[in-house]
Write a sequence for this structure.
């Protein structure tokens, strides 16, 4: 069984442009300084004080260093299933293509359908299938990176598994988490799933073209998000109609490492 | 259920410690799980048993040290125990408490032989 993501390691599939690499050997990480005291002759207490996510965080640091080295803006897109992440991503890539080098890592439990939708735009995409796993972790992203051309000085979008719970705790090395909430969901999602909205720097309120047909209270949803995370930036948009897309594209350009 | 991944990480930490420290059996594992961490304690108990199968901690008892959340008000500077990350400051009523404790997930110590 995979010691990082909890699923069988054979179940995690990374489908890029090159043949699959075999999973790398587990990295042997040093433990923190360990102090022991002898309780009895054979029994003793071993003090560890080690963060459970320590190993993930080490892989995330390596990813982050690589992103910085190549001057890339790496973003981790998170949401519940069906919020319109992939449609939004396709529209975003179409708008940015030709201006910056772009690449995408797609996370889903099964199928390569999302990566195929991305590749249809002409942008490179690597699909990670997590099998039974409910989130991407930093090691999966690290394994996916050699499978794609590095978007030097450009942008890497990592579309996480559709899940508002599990991906919140796993740093992938991204510059920021972007949470997508669609107006066909409940306004109270930020309160029901506070960890995710607290971890995100930006909330995209998607499918706003449908607002005339719904009873969704935008102000209420935004107030809930700010209650959980007072610093969260919010952009209302619709990937389908294009409204608000300029604000999102401007935000992206402002976050680039060499942007002023 | 990300608790399974986390329980697998706990197993890996314990097995590395067993190699470094030369113990062959773990009797008790103390985990610190903050009430505002992204871990559901009951799910962790369930996954812990499954994840430790076949390891040096297969028969280990799990003790969870449950630490309460504490928030620091960015408006008035008051620090208080909180139940949720979106609680208001009990002194001035503002939102946006900065979490100062209660989100840790740590393997604290092991009783081994």
């Amino acid at each position: 069984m995979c010691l990082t993501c909890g699923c069988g390691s054979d179940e995690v599939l990374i489908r890029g442009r090159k043949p699959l690499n075999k999973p790398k050997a587990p990295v042997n990480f040093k433990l923190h300084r360990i102090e022991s005291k002898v309780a009895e002759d054979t029994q003793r207490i071993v003090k560890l004080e080690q963060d459970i996510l320590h190993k993930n965080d080490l892989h995330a640091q390596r990813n982050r260093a690589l992103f910085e080295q190549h001057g890339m803006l790496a973003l981790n897109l998170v949401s519940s299933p069906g919020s319109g992440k992939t449609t939004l991503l396709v529209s975003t890539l179409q708008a940015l293509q030709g201006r910056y080098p772009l690449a995408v890592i797609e996370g889903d439990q099964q199928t390569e359908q999302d990566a195929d939708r991305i590749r249809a735009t002409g942008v490179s995409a690597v699909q990670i299938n997590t099998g039974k796993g409910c989130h991407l972790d930093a090691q999966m992203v690290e394994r996916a990176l050699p499978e794609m051309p590095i978007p030097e000085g450009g942008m890497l979008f990592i579309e996480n598994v559709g899940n508002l719970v599990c991906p919140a705790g796993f740093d992938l090395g991204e510059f920021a988490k972007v949470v997508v909430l669609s107006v066909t969901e409940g306004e109270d999602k930020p309160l029901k799933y506070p960890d995710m909205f607290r971890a995100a720097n930006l909330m995209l309120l998607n499918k706003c073209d449908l607002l005339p047909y719904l009873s969704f209270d935008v102000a209420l949803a935004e107030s809930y998000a700010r209650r959980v995370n007072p610093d969260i930036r919010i952009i209302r948009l619709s990937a389908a109609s294009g409204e608000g897309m300029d604000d999102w594209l401007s935000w992206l350009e402002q976050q680039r490492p060499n942007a002023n | 259920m990300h608790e399974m991944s986390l329980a697998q990480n706990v197993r890996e930490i314990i097995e590395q410690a067993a190699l470094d420290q030369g113990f062959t059996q773990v009797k008790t594992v103390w985990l610190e799980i903050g009430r505002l961490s992204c871990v559901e304690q009951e799910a962790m108990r369930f996954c812990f048993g499954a994840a430790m199968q076949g390891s040096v901690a297969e028969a280990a008892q799990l003790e969870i040290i449950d630490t309460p959340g504490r928030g620091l008000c960015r408006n008035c500077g008051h620090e208080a125990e909180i139940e949720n990350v979106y609680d208001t400051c009990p002194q001035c009523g503002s939102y946006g408490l900065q979490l100062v404790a209660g989100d840790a997930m740590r393997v604290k110590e092991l009783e081994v032989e």
The CA atoms of residues 13 and 26 of chain B lie 12 Å apart. The interface with chain A takes residues 1-2, 4-13, 16-17, 20-21, 23, 27, 31, 37-38, 47, 51, 74, 84-86, 95-96, 104-113 of chain B (CB under 8 Å).
